[in-house]
Amino acid sequence: MEVTRKKTKKFRGSMTHGRGKKGGRGAGLRGGRGNAGLHKHRFMHLLKYMPEHLGTHGFKRPQEMIKKDIAINVGQLEERFPGKKTIDLQKEGFTKLLGGGKVTSKIEVTVRTATPKAIDKIEAAQGKITIAE
Fold it and tell me: What residues does each domain of the chain span?
């Protein structure tokens, strides 16, 4: 009758138990954990199965292409420019007229762009709005 013995007993005294130098500690036998070694021993795996992993993606638009409107509300016109009947918002540094607030006096406004609500409010107060390019 043959006695079966456990592997541990067989390897007593061998220090590594047949796993080599690093096979028994941490993730040494499988080449590291996670994405370890993608630039070394797992480089072909990276190229084949993770082609989007390296490099930059997309693009950043140049700042001169990005249009930023400097806006002012209709209700701020009388506060900012008291007593003026004709206002050129482009000369004042504004590019867009918005429809927030109330207009009580008759004003002529020149601006590059204006919302429909702003146009309605200026015209309701017998004012005039000119869209300039």
Answer: 26-58, 63-131
Q: What is the pLDDT of residues 34-80, one digit of tens each?
A: 999 999 999 999 999 999 999 988 999 898 888 888 999 999 999 99
- Looking at the DSSP bridge assignments, the partners of residue 71 are 96
pTM score, whole prediction: 0.54
Give the span between the Cα atoms of 101 and 98, in whole angstroms.
Answer: 9
CATH fit for domain 63-131, picks 3.100.10.10, 3.20.20.70, 3.40.640.10, 3.10.270.10: 3.100.10.10
Question: Which tokens in the block code for residue 133?
Answer: 């390019």
DSSP alpha helices (H): ranges in the chain? Answer: 7-10, 43-49, 77-80, 89-92, 116-124
The Cα–Cα gap between 97 and 104 comes to 16
